[in-house]
Amino acid sequence: MTANNPQTMGQQFGRRSWAEPWKIKMVEPIHMISRDERKSALDEAGFNTFLLRSKDVYIDLLTDSGTSAMSDRQWAGIMMGDEAYAGSRNFYRLEEAIQTYYGYRHIVPTHQGRGAEHLISKALIKPGQTIPGNMYFTTTRLHQELAGGTFVDVIIDEAHDPASPHPFKGNVDLDKLQALIDKVGAQNIPYVSLAGTVNMAGGQPVSMANVRALRELCNKHGIRVYLDATRMVENSYFIQEREEGYADKPIAAILKEFCSYTDGAWMSAKKDNLVNIGGWLAVNHEDVFDLARNMVVVYEGLHTYGGMAGRDMEALAIGIEESVEDDHVRARVGQVLYLGELLTDWEIPIVQPVGGHAIFLDAKGFYPHIPQNQFPSQTLAAALYLDSGVRSMERGVVSAGRDPKTGDHRYPALELTRLTIPRRVYTQAHMDVVAESVKAVYDAREQTRGLKMVYEPQYLRFFQARFAELD
Questions:
Q1: pTM of the prediction?
Q2: Catalytic residues, which ones?
Q3: What whole-number distance in Å separates Cα of residue 431 and Cα of residue 451?
Q4: 5 within domain boundaries
């Protein structure tokens, strides 16, 4: 850590404290309901935090997707919405922002990230093909499977170890990728699915050296590389902090260089891009653009709005500009690191190093007595809500789903509970409350029992599954 890092400033004598690079102009009141009311709400939700009503939540760390606070500039931009059905001026403003900061040629707007995942999967994947990637993400893998493909994990081994201090645990293992190419043939790999700050690994970044080497390997075999750019701004921050030669480069320049090694990207703009709804697909190749632009009309909307209102596109274009400001990114990641350091000081098991958007609690470390088929991550999320009204989410066996061939649970090495920090929403005092709740739950860990699943939907079960306490 350096003296300029927000997470270390003020912690040693002689250092100056840091503050968020914004001031509060509007507030939304929140309150904590009683423990008995929380228990009733948890029972009604089937111990699934996704099924809780937001009015019953005190501090909402379920997700950073669409939960960020927009700036005064973004709200002003909403009033500039051009709601023309075709050729809205806000689309061209959005197109220019993506071309400027991400560097891709062609833009297809979508209603949110999974709309873009659907388009790229349907456009490029043929039944029976294999899609390598640096650890799965739930909706991404499902779209790939629904298109007839099979996802294969080629992330480095350190990503599956929550205690590993590797600074870039999101890196692709190039030897694994080469072995997969040798096995299935380059012609049966439509693209490599690369994610920045890998969510399921604990928000772990990819290094610039790794994406550069990946590009060279894929060029050798004629394979394209497509990027999940959802949290690439945060990935760029970690490159600036950890990778030699980037300490003095601005986040915007690092982001654009990273994207230059890929052929396109899909984006859930509800994360890095600081809006409550929206997404986009950006590609460099004309053939892919032609397919995607045609399909978006069928599945989303016209190619100049793709499921977004004009005002949403304007707020998104402004959000892109704000998201790459160095002060903003340092404060955003700094708040996550602050919470991570509190928990680390108390020797609470979390994924290390701390990621960019969330703290990932190691549920196996909390509950070594609870087997994975009794859902320790789900159990931990429920326990946190019951203790303090803090809403988190499961990222373990429930999220991993079932193997489509065998029907058995997938059992990932990482069994995590995610505390996801919205951007520009909570203060450091909120983080203190969260940390104290985590510690209270950890201190009571030996008395905690697991859960059983009593309802399971067909797809993406973590959203709607229901659980009950074991007898």
A1: 0.94
A2: 85, 137-138, 228, 271, 395, 462
A3: 28
A4: no
